[in-house]
Amino acid sequence: MSVHMYSGWRPEKTGWIFGLSGKQIFALGVYWLIPFLAAMNNQYGLFLLTCFVGFIWSGLVIWQPGGRSVLDWFVAFVGWNHADRKHLNRFQSKLLSGTANISGDPDLPGRLSRLVFHEGPGVESTRHICIIHDPIAGTYTVVAHASNAGIALESDTVVSQRVQARSALMAEGADDPHILRIVETIRTVPDDGTARGQWLDQNINPSASPAALSTIRKFQKLAHEQSLTHNIFISVVFDGYAMARAAATAGDGIEGVARIIQRKLHGLGSRLTAMGCTSYTWLDLPLVGEAISTGFSPLEGTGFHTPRGSQHRPETIALMSAAGPMGAINRQGCYVHDGCVSVSYRVILPKQQMPLDGLAKIMVPSVRGERRSVAIFSEAIDHGRAHSQVQGEIYKVNQIMDWRRRKKYQNSERHKKQLAEAKAQETKLAHGVALTRGALVLTVTVPVTENIEDACGAAEAAARGAKMRLNRLWLTQDIGFYAGVLPLGMGLERESQR
Fold it and tell me: What is the pTM of this model?
């Protein structure tokens, strides 16, 4: 099979001058007007002073250490310290403190506490899907647990079909005003070897030579220690503001929302199958509780070995009030929860091409008991707004290149490439391909007995080998954990209401 390459990732916004945004140019222009006026009025002392301060101000405006502006760092620092003084960075379960509620509502830390879990209608094999309502963001989320055969042994034709199916799913999200974003969460899980052991017991020949049987058992033990499986969750986030009118005509309150979502999910099932999902099921309340519980407590079990049957789940997991962690601490550089430590990163994709399975390189654990999770956020932009954005990008680059030609400067290859990429996007939009906003979050989790920095170093090295960059989410590790591990659709800021 040939190597399929990924390309097309570009910064969401590009600046006019040296990559600076309009806000940055305005902030610099307003300040440097002061020394200009001082020089015009022969106030050279004030001119020198304001120039000295201006260089510092320019550095604060332009410099973006760790992928954040200085203002963003300041806001994050103040927010974390305020929460620490108010003891909001520490969470203790009500079950542990003896004040558990009996209503079945989940006991979750931080921003998760605002989520409301509703029991919706039946879809396909699920009797009652779980609808997760975020009243602050105005979204409704449903989650599917899927199994995917992968692309390692598939032909080029099958791989291309699956890529096209994913593109069709994004295009459907762009055409549907009710779908806000789609999030794919993949978590590595140690394989306990139960299924492999059962297969061997049923198929091994007891009359085989002792040497062959001994070799098979050794390989089985080695595979048990090093094998991994994956939990794949697909979260579909609906825009509550956009679907308010349609939901009002379908029923009152959550019932109207549930009916609209039920109609949408029937059409999405075929898209998931075309993407390579061999099986999938929309999660009900007990299974959503288990997805949250195994996210916070990976040491308690692998979970989700039988995705189509929730009747076999323990009653303690079915009780939503037990879904959250027993305790959690949000530190500046990591998130501590239920005997584990997690570090979350924002993944910066390379500007050049990368293999289609490039993310697999950063998903391989390196420390005993380590789990890695990656969340891929895709928010489709409606075709009208996408076309306007691409046209604006082409106009902006053309203006810069025309100005450089008039000044007899040679246009750089970077501007030529930027223009070619924008025109390529315009061509794809004309043929119905959707333009999407994307974000990736990687979370590395190890038991507290292991060194988290060793695992982080291995993850960063793997990312460099795949031509990616990892920006550690300092001071916002709790939010990074919620986005990267828990399939609840949280993490990507809403650009604007559609």
Answer: 0.85
